[in-house]
Amino acid sequence: MNGGYKLSVKIGYLGPRGTFTKLAVDVAFNGEHKIPFKTIPQCIDAVNDGTVDLGVVPIENAIEGTVHLTIDYLVHQVRVPIVAEIVVPIQQNLLVNKQFSGDLSDIKEIYSHKHAIAQCQQYLHKHLPHAEIHYTDSTASAAEWISGTNSRPVAAIGNLLAAKEFNLHVLRENIHDYPNNHTRFFVLAKDASKLKINHEKDLEKTTLLIFLPEDRAGVLHQVLSAFAWRKMNLSKIESRPMKTGLGNYFFIIDVNEPFDDYLFPGAIGELEALNCEIDILGTYPVYHLSIDVDKHL
């Protein structure tokens, strides 16, 4: 897939092995040196300090929404450019130790990341209403823990890669509540030339960080109008606290267009005239990728 990609390129991702982030990395890249990190901040820091060339971190799930830790860390701690976005389908499965010989009704405890638990809430409510829920750092860490439980009536929620990595049995497949379950991942890099994804891009986006001036009536309407009359398509608008006091927010705006020399400078100039502060977090291609289970597992 990426036959010409040099092995010297190091890609960091939210680990351990078996996470959905690792699955996204395996689908998008091939043959590079892939390094897991325990937390999102550690992965972003590794890009910033040059430990890795690229970093892949989750930013949004179709069911659970934005991964706030990612966007807050990029805004408040380390500004590393977004150079690509990867979108992959998410399939959650109920995984058990191969020594477990019981059935679904015998499961007493469920382990997984809070987002995975939330994505399967209706299934758990219907089929495992009395199971005790335990939250873990990632779906993969839950699967890794289950690998050491022998015949105990416990299960993890995770993907098929985790099942393979930790030699688990898939007790039930596709237990997520909504079929159109996808997650967006940011690819971060200081040097965009390191990025090589040999897939056809679906579109290009630009992500803007906007700090509004003092709280006054109509200012958000004025901000959005700067894009509206230029017919710039906004795919996402989200507010996050500035962490300076109640009622103080910044805005993240995704525009479904690459940065250009005409529309964006005009819109930014209009916002600056309103005393807004604007920063460009990235202008980048978006790749919607499918997962070939036989190829990537």
Features:
32% strand, globular, D-Maltodextrin-Binding Protein, domain 2, Alpha-Beta Plaits, 3 domains
Describe this structure in words.
- The chain contains 10 helices and 15 strands.
- It has 297 residues and is α/β, with parallel strands linked by helices.
- Strands 1, 2, 3, 4, 5, 11, 12, 13, 14 and 15 form a 10-stranded mixed beta sheet that branches.
- β3 (54-61) and β4 form a beta hairpin.
- α8 packs antiparallel against α9 (263-273).
- The model is unreliable at 1-5 (pLDDT under 50).
Rg from C-alpha positions?
A: 21 Å
Q: What's the tally of helices?
A: 10
How many domains, as an integer?
Answer: 3
CATH topology of the largest domain, anyone? D-Maltodextrin-Binding Protein, domain 2
How many angstroms separate the termini? 15 Å
- Secondary structure class reads alpha/beta
Look at the structure and name the CATH superfamily of the largest domain: Periplasmic binding protein-like II
Strand tally is 15
Strand content: 25-35%
Q: Biggest β-sheet: count, sense, barrel?
A: 10 strands, mixed
> How helix-rich are the residues, as a percent range?
25-40%
Mean pLDDT: 89
Taking pLDDT < 50 over at least 5 consecutive residues as the criterion, the unreliable ranges are: 1-5
Shape: globular
